[in-house]
Design brief:
The chain is of the alpha/beta class. Helix content is 40%, strand content 16%. It contains seven helices and seven strands, in the order βαβαβαβαβαβααβ. The protein has helices at residues 20-30, 45-54, 68-82, 109-130, 156-177, 202-212, 221-232, and strands spanning 8-12, 34-39, 60-62, 85-90, 134-144, 182-188, 243-246. Strands 3-2-1-4-5-6-7 form a seven-stranded parallel beta sheet, with helices on both faces. α3 packs parallel to α4. It binds NADP nicotinamide-adenine-dinucleotide phosphate (NAP). NADP nicotinamide-adenine-dinucleotide phosphate binds at residues 13-15, 19-21, 40, 44, 64-66, 91-94, 118, 143-145, 188, 190-191, 193-196.
């Protein structure tokens, strides 16, 4: 029997089968969870519907997290299809490509607002909509990156957005803890996905981590999925507000060679 048997999980952030959310959803399914999917607006329907079918999704709905009416209709479907549910996966980030290269100081007001709204405020909005439908013992999981804490050249405004996301994790953990719901962030090492390919010099980051992390390797979506299963399950039932690193240990290093 899987460790997530009897649990219902709502998945945000699948673009394709390289997405971190895909790796997590697949593992959730293997562990017995029932899944519901969303995709980022109509244009993504063709890509995400087959993945929902592959993983036996109960529903697959459009949810651009920057549109309140789409969030509202998504949770209407969740209520109809799931009643209540247990796990919310937020695996969403976006910043305009120009903001992910060169000098942070050049970030425009528009790029800043877009990055923060899509990548950090979306967690607040989804938690607020989800809270009435989440069971006691439920778990909210989101994805962050070390660029929130230290300067990673080119990560720029996304680092600022991830700081806001991590801080939101702590405040939401306090708010939702009242109802027995946990909120945690997984800080994943770099993985070549669609979102990551927009970051300037990404290949150099992967090479550097492989040489310099304690485990001398990059992480995979399966590595991240293992930790997500732990966070979604009762094994972590007194862990909330945390940033958990799945990065081959890179965050403990002072300098690289
Ligand atoms: P990904 O496959 O490109 O996933 C990002 C997802 O965010 C996509 O499904 C994207 O949909 C969605 N999204 C963007 N704007 C949205 C909106 N307005 N409404 C709804 N969804 C929206 O890349 P990923 O690497 O798996 O990223 C998942 C999460 O992991 C992100 O939070 C990312 O910052 C984080 N992370 C990634 C790495 C890494 O190195 N890959 C490391 C640490 C943390 P569209 O494609 O349709 O825009």
């Amino acid at each position: 029997m899987g460790i997530l048997e009897g649990k219902k999980a709502l998945i945000f952030g699948i673009a394709n089968n390289k997405s971190i959310a895909y790796g997590i959803a697949k593992r959730f399914k293997e562990e017995g969870a029932e899944l519901g999917f969303s995709y980022a607006g109509e244009k993504m329907e063709k890509r995400v519907t087959p993945i929902s079918e592959e993983l036996g999704g109960k529903f697959c709905v459009s949810c651009d997290v920057n549109k309140d009416e789409e969030i509202e209709s998504t949770f209407k479907t969740v209520k109809e299809e799931f009643g209540t549910f247990d796990i919310l996966l937020h695996s969403i980030a976006f910043a305009p490509a120009d903001a992910l290269k060169g000098r942070y100081i050049e970030t425009t007001r528009d790029a800043y607002n877009t990055a923060l709204e899509t990548s950090a405020y979306s967690l607040v909005a989804l938690c607020r909509a989800a809270e009435p439908l989440m069971n006691k013992g439920g778990s909210v999981i989101n994805l962050t990156y070390y660029g929130s804490e230290k300067v990673i050249p080119n990560y720029n405004v996304m680092g600022v957005a991830k700081s806001a996301l991590e801080c939101s994790t702590r405040y939401l953990a306090y708010d939702m803890g009242e109802n027995g719901i946990r909120v945690n962030s997984i800080s994943a090492g770099p993985i070549k996905t669609l979102a990551a390919s927009g970051i300037g010099g990404f290949k150099n980051i992967l090479d550097f981590i492989e040489r310099n992390s304690p485990l001398r390797s990059n992480v995979t979506i399966d590595d991240v999925a293992g930790t997500a299963v732990y966070l979604g399950s009762e094994l972590s039932n007194k862990t909330t507000g945390e940033i958990i690193y799945v990065d081959g240990g890179y965050n403990v290093m002072g300098i690289g060679l």
